[in-house]
Specification:
69 residues; mainly alpha; 3 helices
């Protein structure tokens, strides 16, 4: 039989909110930017005049349920 050691009294220190908040805001902005390019970058609302962005994210649009045809 093997013996297992149980170490008690050790726990991970909580991460302060002031260290998490900038990363959460950054991740949220990246998510919103990605959703814009996948969901809205087409037609009258497009930032770029060409269809390159639309064609690049075309399959992702269908996967996420955005209509584009």
């Amino acid at each position: 039989m093997s013996q297992s050691a149980i170490i008690s009294g050790t726990s991970a220190a909580p991460i302060p909110l002031k260290e998490i908040l900038p990363w959460a805001v950054f991740a949220g902005l990246l998510f919103i930017l990605a959703m814009y390019f996948v969901g809205i970058e087409e037609g009258a609302m497009s930032i770029f005049n060409s269809m390159y962005v639309h064609e690049f994210v075309h399959d992702g649009r269908h996967l996420l349920g955005f209509p584009c045809h």
